[in-house]
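Annex B. Sample input.
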Amino acid sequence: MNRMSAVALALLAVTPLGGQETGGLTLTEAVRIALDRGRDVRDARFAVEVAGEQVSEQWSNLYPQLDVSASYTRNLRVSEGFLPAIIFDPTADPSELIPVRFGADNQWQTSLSLEQTLFDPAVFVGLGAASRFRNLQSEALRGRAQETVTRTRIAFYNLLLAQEQRRLTHNSVRRVRESLEETRKLNEAGLASDFDVLRLEVELANLEPNLLRADNGVAEASRGLAIELSVEDLDGVRVTGSLAQIDLDDLDANSSANREILTFGGQAAESLPAIDALVTEATETRSDLRQLGLTEDLRLTELRLEQVQYLPDIAAFGSYSITAQQNGGLNFFGDANNRTTGALVGVRVNVPIFAGFSRDARIDQKRAQLRQAETQVRLATDRAESEIKTLRDRVAESRARARAQRFAVRQAMRGFEIASAQYREGISSQLERTDAEVALRESEFNYAQAVYDFLVASAQLDQAVGRVPMVDGARASE
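Annex B, continued. Sample output.
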């Protein structure tokens, strides 16, 4: 873990949950922690390690195989066999048998064997299959890292939205309470009716339970982000930024925290690339498409691996052995009179002839799997194009909606100020002031929701195209 991630984790340990502009994790810090500690990414890294060792295992089939074996046997009773006595005594009865001992009290056997593959097409094709599988796992790691980054970004935005909902709820309750206090004073002075007071009391009673709901929403969003960061304190995550203060049209008008959110994935760009450019980029960089392409290559290699099973394999071998026997007490390997050695070399050729049509069946299976992989690539490409078009439209729509809602917030704020002033002067009714407050509350949340939708759609579009920030070849291969 690098120094910045360690500092960010320390920050998690000492800061409470909150929604302020400062004093919490930035989006970059949160993503870096998720990549360093995320369980999905760690699991994918282990899979890459396994695939790498499988490649090493395949390479071992090309190296010489050297084996040494040794054994010692102590015969508690040496076995005997029977031979015709005429072998030793020509005058003996042909039917007479005599017992003969085979072996000795002590027996030693040591051998050294060496085998080297000279030609085995299955080994070479298998090595290629293992390498392709390792490439597939490496790309899967990149894909898991992209998914982790996208989930972390959305969880970060969820927490910002929950914090905004809580802030707006508190502001709304505060405004209603202030209106209620003013109305009570006007009622005491005979300038407001009891109904106006009663109406505000009912509105306040309906709003106050939403405070607890908003707090619970923040806690739930905080726990969701904490799970992505793999931190133990699920309720202690605090982030920087404010959706209500994000200006999508003027990057310089934003605070440093909001500017970091907008520049993280390039959301501050004024215009989106053309659909054709995005689709072309996706075919080259989108992880699931690349994984399907690598899977297709792997299936083709597996088909070739089955086809080469019809070819012969050739290997050279040799061995050297020492054998000794001795009666009586134990004398390691005896002496030269009861010890012998042997050595041999040779070449073995194995030609497969017939295996009950099992190889034909396996070849047909691999050929069908190859066609299946090709179909999956075409289907996934079409779906990716459709997804990119949908998300691009969603990004453009949410940006336009945010721009309109920002204007609506300014107008609603002005309307509330006018309604409040007119009410205090007795020109307008409490109902008009209440309607203006509700319109302001809805406009503020609608703007925050539009910015949230824009950020989420942008994060999803990044993943759909395959250009997720902070995920590259260096990090994916760690």
